[in-house]
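Exercise (ungraded).
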Amino acid sequence: MSTTYLCGLDIGGTFTDCVLVDDRGRVVSAKAPSTPGDFAEGLMNALGIAARKCGRPVSELLADTSLISHGTTVGTNAIVQKRGARIGLVTTRGHNDVIHIMRGSRGLDGREVRQVVHIPESRKPTPIVPKRLIRGVSERVDCFGKVVVPLNEDQAAQAVRELLAEGVEAIAICFLWSFLEPAHERRVKALVQDLAPGLFVTCSHELVPKWGEYERTTASCLNAYVGPVTTSYLADVEARLEHAGYGAPLQITQSAGGTIPVETARRSPLLTLDSGPVAGVMGSRHSGGAMGYDNVITTDMGGTSFDIGVIHGGEPACSFRSKVHQYEYYLPKVDIQAIGSGGGSMVRIDEVTGTLRVGPESAGAEPGPVCYGRGGEAPTVTDADLVLGRLNPDNFAGGAMRLDLAAARRAIAGVADRLGMDVDACAAGITQIVEFQMADLIHKATIQKGFDPRDFVVFAFGGAGPAHAGVFAAELGVSKVVIPQRATASVWCAFGAASVDLLHIYERVDIMASPFDLERVNALLASLRGRAEAQLLADGLPRERHRFRYALDMRHKGQIHEVEVGLDEMPLGRLGLDRLPERFTALYERLYGSGSSLAGARLEIVTARCRASAATPKPSFVRSEERTPDIPPAARLGERSVYWPRVAGAAGARATAAGTAVARTTVAGTADAGAKAGAETAPPGGAAPGRGLPGRVNTPIYDGHALAPGNGIEGPAIVELDTTTVVVHPGQALHMDAYGNFELFPGPARPGNGAAAPRETGARRIAADAG
Amino acid sequence: MLRISEMHDVRFDGRHYPYVPPEALRISETLRLHGDWDAEVDPVTFEVIRHNLWHVNEEHGATIQKVSGSPVAMYALDLNPSILTEDAEFVYFGPYMQYMSGVTDTQVKWILEHRSDNPGIHDGDMFLANDPWVGAAHQQDVMLICPVFFEDELFCWVTNCLHQYDVGGITPSSFCPAAESAYDEGILIPPVKIVEKDVIRRDIEELYLRASRKPEMVALDFRAQLAGNTTAKTRILSLIERYGAGTVKGVMKRIIDNAEKAFLDKMARLPDGEWQERTYVESCRPGDRRTHRVVLTVRKKGDRLTFENHGSAPQDGAMNATFSGWRGSVMVAINELLCWDQYFAVGGALRHIDFNPTPGTFNCANFPGSVSTAPIQAMEISLYPAYNALSKMIHPDPEMRRDILCIGGTSQWPCTVFRGIDQWGERYGYILVDPIGGAIGAFAHADGINTGGQVRTPICQLPNVEHTEQSFPVLFLYRKELPDSGGAGRFRGGMSAESCFVPHNTEEIVQDTLSSGNAAPTSPGLMGGYPSATNRYAYVTGSDIGERFARAEMPEDIDEVEGTPVHLELRQQNLVQRAADVYAVRWCGGGGFGDPTERAPEAIQSDLDNFAITEGAARDIYAAVLDGESGRVDAEATARRRERLKAERVARFGRAATVRTGDLLHEVTPYLHARRDGRGAFWACARCSAELGALDDNYKLGCNREDRHISASNPLIGEPRDFINDDVEFRQFSCPGCGTLIENEVAVASDPVLRDIELRIRA
């Protein structure tokens, strides 16, 4: 019997990635340049390269492919480049300005605080739908879902005709309370379809049947805005794949952390926004799961930003509100938090006060850091890393690029002189500031949500991530950083796309106050299930593969915070209903703090949700049977002078004296040794700035691609890879696991938070297993 | 009436007169202050700790929001956390309700002075306070103040302030528009120790909650405040543990020193002088038809700023604020115009600022004046003139000019206070939050922001209509931005909006009105800019709205509805609204910047296309010529018409003008220069160099003055006499040489011409 494949395809700004996983878990990956203008071409190219690597013609390969999962950025690009469709909006008369009023704010969520407080910088965004293309139609539904004013069909038809005459390419329809009574939206949609067959049309109740007209209108308009371009792109991809011999379903990755059938993506392209980074989180979830980690903080530090996701108990943290270009909208989404701290983050000195600041402005890829030699003049984090000796000027990005160390040094010296610091200390300071910003973001995404980061392992991705992960992980008390390697690392999002389930999310708002009516709750859940089941069957998925999970968003009556309470059963029994307040309170207090829940207060159910999924085949991982403590001679690349902010005590002396790393014999041994070495050598304050003795040390350099499973290295050390550089600080240890991933042990957490003692975390478990 | 600086033998201790902290605080010797810090902190450690302190404060605010979860905390963001040094200088102050800044440091200083001996200030204590004479804005703004100790020494303070639903008084919500004195209002609590040795004192908490109509919500909010302080205190202690007390304190001091340096740098770039603004509050109690003058003066001498309110009306009725409310208002403008680049670290600037109001005026009221409505009336009206005065002060500096902010929307809050039985059969009481959508006034280089919120709460959000309809028995007919609501100008003020609703699923709604700025606009323009719309209540009873519903014809404006129009007074009580009674409330927009007849034709066209202005305004105020056929702005014809109008203006007066050149001293406004030649310093038109008088005189006297009815300044302004006994004028001052509009003034007819700018030029 022939081999069958799973295929993940991901289009990024620069490269289009393809991952093929066969039924024995073997992975083939390929990259081709992305082809803006006709993205499908780059996609077919990547597929062609992968096919050649497998030694098979594309047609044969596709015939043996059971599933293609595709992540697309076509919609995201249209929004970023403001090149979406000319859209019209039909809404409730009197409420035309909802999307312009933006809830009386300037779209501040997620923006840098200075832009918020400095009013001249805090403009509203350019509207995606101008007022001239918005039509109000008489109709009204109230908060009980009762029709108060019937739809004025003449006005509606007139509105649609006027918009068509204005040349709109898509129409969004959003009426007040349509999520309770969608008849009017449906009727107007039918009118559009009559008057302009084939025109892209979105109804808010179909896309996001949620409470809150601003966010719902925004979602509908964004969907229409990216609709035509996404639809035609997907049709193109489908046709090309079919032409090339592919006969199985095409699935599209979505931002909620699963895939959707291509038909759904064509109807609701909004679901695909930001799906690339989400696929990365989902890939981490899948591989983390395979390695035994239920709690993972995924971190991705590229040139311009630092993105994190949180997986707890095997489930990614989700949010139900999203934002783009200052607009906020509803969309169930795997939550990714970002700050502008990347390799390209620029260093500046506040002229008046003479203080040092890093980011959030970024030099990006063009002109990029000073050391790129492309005209960048402001020193960046990457320049600091280079000056410190962490990066190899002759072996950056696999040797694809030479870095100008002298220029970087001059740039940093310019800053250092003005601050009266020496160049190395200044460069180290720059990296520390960025590392602390990253630690703060993770702090917000975990501690402020009721999670303890010490219960997590960190996955570090991105070109700049593994150079800094050791410090922010230590800062947070995280005991292990995993740097995924081998074939999947550079095509992680494509890999993630291939690793997720098909997922439909159905939501319905029915606001009810306690005491709850069991029948009403169950009727609500049953209606969701009915729709979900019909969809899965329509997707061609047999019942035995269906999986349904239910949840209720609840809150204190009169308060704002909603908490998603998962349900164990459907229909809900009397006992389950009675236990709802207790479960709500427990979750609420975890999120909002002990004592925050008003005992005995009335509760409200706001939204019911059904996640309907169908498992798809998954890539598996191949463990290496051979493990060795012996570092292959080819992996040793000699030494280089590297500046460390803390070369304290024995570790520094040993590293200098021996000049080589000590290999460890077992995984568990390394973990213990890492912890012990740190405990012996780290001064109080861990990797804190301003403590311990800074200085330059001749530091061993390794070729990460030549290291073997079972190899262990003690810091200080630098491990160079084609796509990134791993920095192992004094007192830290690095180990390659059986899957070829690197595990970095950041050393003991700083004192005072009680985290120094080993804990029963995923990290410990896996270490014990392997040992 | 005397200014504070002129009053002697008076105790400013927060009892009859407001608490005004002395230069040196009188603190019990039993309390040891941590006074030992590192003068030098390396730049990296500084930045890391600075960043951390900002986040401590941010997390403090987030914690309050999380635990409270109330619409007040989540939408109106009527809260603010801060960090202060051991001697109550601001380190950081959050981006929430800005008013609360000015009320924080004074309360901490009062505690240091009046509580350090008895009952003492110790580790594990927290103080609760809401007394406006000690320092709260009004009784509803309850502060929880937490000393942070390190090794027996008071290291710093973390505090927060959160608006409460109800703390008692004659009106639910504790906003008491009919109160005659503080005795009619919510409970007054001078700082009391409510947490002792980390334990809540049950006796004090019960005392606190007893007067409230919503004790359970106040109790939850108290928990939120407690959690916020605890979070901040814990994080600061862990910073101390890690970096050492001397280093952390060194960073705090340097944050303030840096902010001070930045402030002084700005002061050095500006001329000395005095800037004054005048505006009005209408109606201080039900039945009152007077206007009450508000005057704000800022004087700059070297590196010192002095703020005064001399000339403001005496305290009266239920419209007052205390010293701290007024100071807090002025500090909002200081923060946003002068300290934004230092993340609101206003402590540095405060070292060089004097507040010298006149006690007994309505925005510096003595006990027991009624002050419960302060933030929506007396404080708003104290704040917004400060924007104009400071904007005029900073205009001479080209870089600071980019920070200029014209007065924004909702400069007086038109309240919709309503109550009754909701659609679920439960009793409710509420103040419609919609006016918080406000508008941002024009900038000196760009248009303002339509419904961009209120500047004094940079990050607020108004609820969706669906949110309001779910919670209250109303059906919104519309919520829309209003063309022409933004003040006209070369750069237009942001548009404001109007909300309109009928009762729904209830028998009736009982309403109180509470407003000002309905007669005379409270968001005047700046430097030739025009005022925004006024506030407006519109009410049509016994309307045809039911028939319209049945016919599926929804109105887009209350004026389309057939019925009996009813005039609503500014402080009306117990208005009963039934199903066919349509109610609408418009809040005012942002003021404009610069002469509207200098607005670019393409900008006018864009405004017409986007419904920001009407054709009438384009013609009458912007002096645009619209093409008869296409209706589009004809740029050339517009330019010709504008030149002709200026020439006509010059001709109307026939006043001789002398061109006088000399060295340019300052670009005082885009239209007004200060110059100097051998004969001395003088005002001159920036366009034609016509002399406008000696620098010692009011430049307006050298201009041609035209007095117009206030309704000429904005199409949405009506007849002031509908609400007040005064006439209101729109005074325009133009160059006698070329007809250029130099400045406008909104004034009650009996008031003299305002001298808004005085410059002191050193010889």
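Further reading is listed at the end of the chapter. For now, observe: Chain B touches chain A through 98 residues (CB under 8 Å). The two ends of chain B are 34 Å apart (CA to CA).
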